Amino acid sequence: MVSLDATSVIFGSGIIALVWALIQYSLVAKIPVQSNSGVGESAGLVSGSDNEATTRRLIEIYEAIYEGAESFLRAEYTICAYFVVVFGAIIFALVSWGTGWDMQRGLFTALSFVLGAVTSIVSGYLGMKVAVFSNVRTTVSAQKPGFTACFNTAFRAGAVMGFALCGLGIIMLYATMLVFRSYYPNPEDWIYLTECITGYGLGGSSIAMFGRVGGGIYTKAADVGADLVGKVVHGIPEDDPRNPATIADNVGDNVGDVAGMGSDLFGSFAESTCAALVIGSSIGATGGWDAMVWPLILSATGIIVCLLCSFIATDIFTVKKEADVETALKVQLISTTALMIPATYGAAVWFLPAEFYLKQTVGTGTLTLNPWQAWVCVIMGAVGGLVIGLITEYYTSHSYQPVREVANSCKTGAATNMIYGIALGYKSAIIPVIVLALVVYGSFTLCDMYGVALAAIGFLTNLATGLTIDVYGPVCDNAGGIAEMAELDPSVREKTDALDAAGNTTAAIGKGFAIGSAALVSLALFGAFVTRIRHSSGDTVFQNGVNMLEPITFAFLIIGGMIPFAFAAMTMKSVGLAAMEMVMEVQRQFDEKPHLLDANPTERPDYDACIAISTKASLKEMVPPGAMVMLTPLLTGIIFGVSAVSGLLVGSLVASVQLAISMSNSGGAWDNAKKYIEKASPDSELKGKGSDIHKAAVVGDTVGDPFKDTSGPALNIVMKLMAVLSLVFADTFYAINDGTGLLALS
User: Fold this and answer.
1) Which of 202, 252, 446, 676 is deepest in the core (most CB within 10 A)?
2) Which residue(s) pair with 64 in the sheet?
3) Which residues form the signal peptide (predicted)?
């Protein structure tokens, strides 16, 4: 029998993921950025005979998008680098002091924080580079007959990001653990190792906050500005090269939808793993190292499953027509979830002992667990994630009744469109919340809070596929924008729009996964926080759980519920301010250069001015929301104590998950209602593009942009970041008046 241990499986899967990402990149790189007007399998459909001029235009647009994204990320990550240095020093000082001046634990926690932050930055930057590199090649591939070439190009671009991020994340995290194990060789001391490694999750989540908020403000300021002046006022198409904001809009797809989202999901992976390791640290004493790091083995297994299933889309059931696109993407999600069921069972039987023991999160007893219980918790998470994703699709795809109702509401104007869209978002939260409640109850019943952490990892076992599909959407969106700006044959734009429409639907499914996993990750981190406080206090605090009826706890429960609304208000207003500035700049250019609106303009818009507005606004506006989310739990723990932090975390979790689902789904529904109207013919009930009904839909879509792409997704990070920060500083909080804070109110 082949002998497999955790180290070989984890490192092996990570290396395979990186190699596979490199292979996918090489396949995309083989496509030359060259337009062709001939006829045939390798020819294009470009109108006109001057292919060299069209090729130059394609390269010019590609370079403009690349330079815009590069300059923004360089500026953003420079700010992040200063933050990492300063906050790393704060972590070192406070953790060392909180652990009785254990400088080693302080140093290791700060080091893991820096490594997590650097990995998150690399992930986001890599995603941006790959997306920008691939979008123009997707445009070129769309010139070929059929859908196979352009779909495969965009899908492989997503796979580069998906597998590279998963491989890099798992290798960095496990390598850090192995280094720390050399200083904590005894299983009884592994709890200190897992506590130090929580800094890795905090680092990833901190950068994700800045990436999601900064990137979200950038992309939506440009998008809203371009839509309001271009489509609503002057009636020019989306991504029309005459619109000065169109390059900034396409840059935003890469820095927000790709780089920000990549950092976000990397943070979820890191935090869910850290939570499971802290809660399950006692498993190592009886089950050994391989049993304790089983959460990482799950992620390694997921990489292999996602790799095998990727062949279904690109090689087995290839995309030949428009109807195949959405099916291919959904099959990826369903097939990976289905294959994870036997794969995780094999991992459980192979690496977990027949019986292993776990300290209860509440109470003083010890649970006796077996592999099948741990496996069921993971599967509940994986299947629950798929259900939430499919419910999200039902409420955001124009193939189903809810979005069509929103589209029909546009007949009576923008106001009724807004009412219907907001109502849809609220209603769409019902079933996902019930599913989450069932997953939490079932997993906690089987394996205590460790089961909840495993369920959170279950949500993310097919992370490589989820990332692939998430990156696929922005790549197709950018490809369509490039086709429009390069004035290629309309059939090319129609093809990229078909790819993008399917990507929007599956992206909504991905957001459902992300929100559900964030809720479970946050709850698992809260369980880890309670576990760590119990360990620090010698079981004198939280032995019987957190009492929500304590005045200080209940008071901060209400305050915690307010935090997501304050955060959403700040980010929404930031988009509004930046969009107003963008609208004025675009209108100024149209006023000063009236010939820009000619069918064949002789003047060129100043794209750089709009890029500068988005960059400046996003860098300025991303700091206050991030500071609020990070300082609130830190100051609460220092001033009011651990009971106040407990209330704060629970209140934030409960409010964030409802608000995130409703905002994301309202925004997605408005977007697809607009697309549904655009597909209608002028003599139909919905009148099609350019009608008053369409203008009402554009208003809804414009309002929905920050809902679904700025505030909604960033709420995932709010609940996770507050929880992981509290976990990292748990010893510090307890060291202040035995956990009652400077005011000693409890």
Assistant:
1) 252
2) none
3) none
By the 10 Å C-beta count (0-12 exposed, 13-18 middle, 19+ buried), 681 is classed as exposed
Q: How many domains does the chain have?
A: 1
Report helix angle 692-706 to 551-592, nearest 10.
130
For residues 166 and 467, the answer to whether their CB atoms sit within 8 Å is: yes
d(CA 371, CA 692): 60
Cβ proximity of 224 and 705 under 8 Å:
yes
Q: Is residue 44 part of a domain?
A: no
Tell me, rounded to whole angstroms, the distance of Cα 556 from its chain centroid.
28
Residues of the domain holding 672: 6-33+50-739
User: Is the predicted pLDDT of residue 46 greater than 70, yes or no?
Assistant: no
For residue 173, being part of any structural domain is answered with: yes
Range of lowest pLDDT (9-18, 221-230, 413-422): 221-230
Q: Is 728 exposed, middle or buried (0-12, 13-18, 19+ CB in 10 A)?
A: buried
Give the end-to-end CA distance of the chain in Å, rounded to a whole number.
Answer: 58
Cα(216)–Cα(709) distance, integer angstroms: 6
Helices and strands (H and E) in the chain: how many: 24, 2
Asked if residue 745 is part of any domain, the answer here is no
Res 352 pLDDT > 80: yes
CA 199, CA 112: separation in Å to the nearest integer? 5
In whole angstroms, what is the distance from residue 505 CA to residue 515 CA?
16
Give me the half-sphere count of Cα atoms (radius 13 Å) on the Cβ side of residue 407.
28
Do 237 and 285 touch, CB atoms closer than 8 A? no
Closest CA to 164 of 464, 404, 371, 432: 464
Q: pLDDT tens for residues 423-465? A: 999 999 999 999 999 999 999 999 999 999 999 999 888 899 9
Residue with tokens 């923008």: 414
> Which residues, at least 6 apart from 533, have a Cβ–Cβ distance to it below 8 Å?
541, 542, 642, 730, 733, 734, 739
Task: Please list the alpha-helical segments (H only) found in 641-682.
Answer: 642-679
Digit-coded pLDDT (tens) for 563-576: 999 999 999 999 88
Q: What is the pLDDT of residue 591?
A: 86
CA pair distance 373, 225, nearest whole angstrom? 52
Bridge partners of 367?
Answer: 358
